[in-house]
Description:
Layout: H1 7-19, E1 30-33, H2 41-54, E2 59-61, H3 77-86, E3 90-96, E4 108-109, E5 114-123, E6 137-142, H4 146-151, E7 157-162, H5 165-173, E8 179-183, H6 184-193, E9 199-203, E10 210-217, H7 222-237, H8 240-245, H9 265-281, H10 301-314, H11 316-319, H12 346-356, H13 367-380, H14 392-397
Parallel strand pairs: 1-2, 1-3, 6-7, 6-8
Antiparallel strand pairs: 3-10, 4-10, 5-8, 5-9, 5-10
Amino acid sequence: MNFRITHIAVAAALAAGGAHMNAHPATNAVRVCTLPGSPTAVLDVAVARAVLKAAGIPATFAAHGIDDDGGDDGISAHELSRALGRDCDLVAGFPRSSIADASGSQMVFSQGYLRSGYVSITLRGPHAATAAADGKETVAATWSSPSQLIAVQQKNVRFDLENTSELTVDAVAKGRAQRAIVWYPAVVAYQRTHPEQQFAVAAAPSPYADWNLVFASRPGMRALQARIDDSLTHMNGDGRLAALTRGWTLPEGATSEARADAPHFDDAMTSYRRARDNVRAAGHIIKVAATTGGNPPAFDHEQVEHGQHIYSESCAKCHGAQLEGITAPALSGPAFAPAANSHLTIGGIYQYMSTNMPADRPGKMSDQEYADLMAFLLYTNGYDAGDAKLTSEAAQSSTTPLNAGPRH
């Protein structure tokens, strides 16, 4: 999914939307939005039309999904809250996991209409990439998504982090990676536009791999969701739902069960840290070198110190005191920005961070505070401080890839 926003932030946005929106009277059409960049957007609209029609609920559909700023940095909680207050009553195609979403009671969900999730893919045929001479395969994942959290639990691998799920699939198709952990609908969408490419799809062995697409709304819409559930139940029983979602369902053997005996979160994070430490111990972090993107923007030690303070106050609870990742991905080392295979730019990371973070209050910091935080992230990933201050303009405009290297 190109849609990247933590579920905590989504919940907060929906709650905020509910605070300044009254439920539409039953006679008014329900306003339906999809998620920006979602590969299932066409499917989500088709299912929503059929479900709402069967329930006798009039509906209108936003032409371009939930409105965002036109960038590729995902959608912020502020953007989602604004859309719910202005354009939407119902979000179709909302991905929900009983294990990984922390939305609690702040959101109202329907039952699922498509079981999907994250899978492991390899390229079929003679053009499939082979592992390096040392036997380590490169695994592609989508940055700042559950696929990154799943990928870093893999052992004996290198990482190729991509900005979108489409690019993650493309990494396997073009040979940048031997395997990818990726959102399955992105695989379906990619194959439809590149029919010559065929992928072998297997389960991603992680409790964070199993998801369902649902209808989501703000508090106060429970009556609407109850009618949607009744409609989904009937359509599931008479085969109409299966007909609508045919072609998007996970292939046999590619489901990852969210079982009662699945690893607890602490156990999963132990595996995460072990995988990260294995990569570090094997010496696969190299010092940052000059790149085709030009020199990284300058920053000074004072910014690093201030950025570290900001990080401790606003970021460590999710990303870890040592940037190792807890409920959110790591922000240092090869799991964050692998030295040889990262397509993430400093400007792209800064734009995403300043728009979407921290998850509980996106955009709460000043431009200079975000710049200082970026200086801290650069320093902890091997970049050296200098004499000039990093500005938000310099950080946002940087096209230099961010590659993780060790501190001296």
